[in-house]
């Protein structure tokens, strides 16, 4: 690991532990995620500490994926850490995409406010299942766009759009006659109406997860990313790094939950000795160490693949499945070790369990990734028979 990444990670960890963790009981932690006033306050502190958007350097370049991993793991030590340091989803993935494919004008207008932490963003792709819209299969997309003079007109309904409520930058996916398209949109816009913010198992993301109606949204042609029909190609540029950064952040949270459970097991006595000395408890903590290390190594391996310039589609699927399942086992054991305290709000262990359970669905559920890998296995087998 590079010296610069280690130096940044050390600063980030100190900031999260000393400045962010005390906010975990703040009254502005809403049911649908932290209020924007809290996010702004935390980001101001991160800016003062020199750890705001730490994965993007002063010249606009990014840390490598392997370097990003060590930094984002540290931001994840608190559920509020990624928000404070501006490394949270969907902003981190949207910044990556705009940095890769946005025009100079698009970067100035839409990317810079995200990098500075002044604005939040949302990625409008998923659609309602009850109407047969796009979910894990984006080819089912029903939201349409048509060219009208120098503008595109977009209509559709989106669901589970993280952070839409309160976002200032939107990336909207729609389908033209050529195929999938992506558009950059200033928010709020009266043509994009929040129907509801959905009650979900997690609570760490500002704005929650919204269902929205898009009715005759007019977007200037120069706000399209690339050309008509290129949306799926751009989605692939974003997806693998975004899957992996989820793994990074939630590894940090699982590590923190393990710290708390370990402290509890070493301090709490029952049946004449500390809990950790009871084999059943000690073995659960030992299994945690194994899962955490395997997750860390899986992330590093996949990050190395992405750093070669590969899209890393199969590798990121493998990492997402392995890491999300491992971290869920860790979070579940932490709850179990801590008993009644583990299911209470007295520590962040209960929240870690909820957040990581949702992670097994986000950016593609485990089963979809395994299905994709099985198709690759079959293709590779057929290629070997030729």
From TrEMBL:
<feature type="domain" description="Acyl-CoA oxidase/dehydrogenase middle">
    <location>
        <begin position="122"/>
        <end position="194"/>
    </location>
</feature>
<dbReference type="InterPro" id="IPR046373">
    <property type="entry name" value="Acyl-CoA_Oxase/DH_mid-dom_sf"/>
</dbReference>
<feature type="domain" description="Acyl-CoA dehydrogenase/oxidase N-terminal">
    <location>
        <begin position="3"/>
        <end position="118"/>
    </location>
</feature>
<keyword id="KW-0274">FAD</keyword>
<dbReference type="InterPro" id="IPR006091">
    <property type="entry name" value="Acyl-CoA_Oxase/DH_mid-dom"/>
</dbReference>
<dbReference type="GO" id="GO:0003995">
    <property type="term" value="F:acyl-CoA dehydrogenase activity"/>
</dbReference>
<feature type="domain" description="Acyl-CoA dehydrogenase/oxidase C-terminal">
    <location>
        <begin position="229"/>
        <end position="376"/>
    </location>
</feature>
<dbReference type="GO" id="GO:0050660">
    <property type="term" value="F:flavin adenine dinucleotide binding"/>
</dbReference>
<protein>
    <submittedName>
        <fullName>Acyl-CoA dehydrogenase</fullName>
    </submittedName>
</protein>
<dbReference type="Pfam" id="PF02771">
    <property type="entry name" value="Acyl-CoA_dh_N"/>
</dbReference>
<comment type="similarity">
    <text>Belongs to the acyl-CoA dehydrogenase family.</text>
</comment>
<dbReference type="GO" id="GO:0033539">
    <property type="term" value="P:fatty acid beta-oxidation using acyl-CoA dehydrogenase"/>
</dbReference>
<keyword id="KW-0560">Oxidoreductase</keyword>
<dbReference type="Pfam" id="PF02770">
    <property type="entry name" value="Acyl-CoA_dh_M"/>
</dbReference>
<dbReference type="InterPro" id="IPR036250">
    <property type="entry name" value="AcylCo_DH-like_C"/>
</dbReference>
<keyword id="KW-0285">Flavoprotein</keyword>
<dbReference type="InterPro" id="IPR037069">
    <property type="entry name" value="AcylCoA_DH/ox_N_sf"/>
</dbReference>
<dbReference type="InterPro" id="IPR013786">
    <property type="entry name" value="AcylCoA_DH/ox_N"/>
</dbReference>
<dbReference type="InterPro" id="IPR050741">
    <property type="entry name" value="Acyl-CoA_dehydrogenase"/>
</dbReference>
<dbReference type="InterPro" id="IPR009075">
    <property type="entry name" value="AcylCo_DH/oxidase_C"/>
</dbReference>
<dbReference type="GO" id="GO:0005737">
    <property type="term" value="C:cytoplasm"/>
</dbReference>
<dbReference type="InterPro" id="IPR009100">
    <property type="entry name" value="AcylCoA_DH/oxidase_NM_dom_sf"/>
</dbReference>
<comment type="subunit">
    <text>Homodimer.</text>
</comment>
<dbReference type="Pfam" id="PF00441">
    <property type="entry name" value="Acyl-CoA_dh_1"/>
</dbReference>
